[in-house]
Amino acid sequence: MADCTPEQKALVEEILSVKRTDYYRVLKVDKTANDVEIKKSYRKLAIKLHPDKNKHPKAAEAFKVIAKAFEVLGDDSKRKMYDMTGSDPDSRGGMGGNPGGNGMDGFAGFQGFQGFPPGAGMGQGNINEDILNMLFGMGAMGGGNGFSFNFGGNGFPNNGFYYSNTPGMNARRRAQQQQQRTRRNNSDELPWTQYLIQFLPLIIIMVSILINSFGSGSTADGYRNVREFHGSVPRYVFQPVDGMNVERITPKLEMKYYVSENTIKDFEGRKNPEKELAGLDKFVENKYLETLNYGCIREKNIKREMQESAQGIFFTDWDKLERADKMEMPNCDKLASLNLL
């Protein structure tokens, strides 16, 4: 345990002290946590508990505990089952059956469904044949009353199974089929609605492209970077240099930038110089935010690609995953400091 830090030792003991099936406590998340929060918490714990990083004798055991918790909470269907039962959804003891029984002991207290002839119960005869007959309507359950079951078109009933103690399909089922035929006929009369639904995503994309084409720049501060001055964009810098030492300040962020004296003379010779210079100040500020925004998007993409490539099919590159989590993101950090992220 010489290579194990006190923090690593405390974490291993904490995980192993929690009830194994208390998956939310194991991963240190609330029951209302979303998928992103669950994955983020698991990733942090996995880095700290992986045997390659944590030399505690029981680190591997603790790692398996969090891996099992993530296997359940990271899967929507398993998580729903766990939330309902509070037990491991992969456990085979969830139905409370009798070990060593035939799997149908849960029905031992029933004497058969009303309407089944004697001898057609689950405790007598060929059980598999009885189940097939009940599910797929392969004749009566032993002769007698001619009892039949009719399921919906998708293999399941819409509102319980339909049954009739007379040969043939019952009236409720026939009415449902008639409604389905009517809907199909109506859809054949209006085929353009189907085409509209198919091409709707493409139409939405094209409209959004057209809307965005009317303006350029960042919308992070609430308005588009529309040029509110005439002529081309003059040269400007954020640090004074020779020939570029006339200071200007942007309206919202109050950033300093510098232009040449010739630029100022050019704007002062215009019809409304103050408005034109104010438009230049706004343009420079928006252009700065636009650059930060594109840089932040690029940083996020690089980080996500590193995280995904670190998690292979058969193993996880923990060093690479840790580097991705610690990756510096200066553009995103700057936007966050401006309360724009």
UniProtKB/TrEMBL annotation:
Q: What are the transmembrane regions?
A: 195-214
Q: Pfam families in the record, alphabetically?
A: DnaJ (PF00226), DUF1977 (PF09320)
- Entry superkingdom: Eukaryota
Coiled-coil spans in chain: none
Alphabetically sorted, this entry's keywords are: Endoplasmic reticulum, Membrane, Transmembrane, Transmembrane helix
A molecular function annotated in GO for this UniProt entry is:
Hsp70 protein binding
Start and end of every J domain? 22-86
- What do the Gene Ontology cellular component annotations say? endoplasmic reticulum membrane
GO BP annotations of the record are: cellular response to misfolded protein
Q: Where is this region: Disordered?
A: 81-101, 167-186
Q: Where is it localised?
A: Endoplasmic reticulum membrane
Known InterPro entries for this protein?
A: DnaJ_domain, DnaJ_domain_CS, DnaJ_subfamily_B/C, DUF1977_DnaJ-like, J_dom_sf
Entry membrane topology: Single-pass membrane protein
| UniProt main location, coarse | endoplasmic reticulum
Q: What is this protein called?
A: J domain-containing protein
Organism lineage: Eukaryota, Fungi, Dikarya, Ascomycota, Saccharomycotina
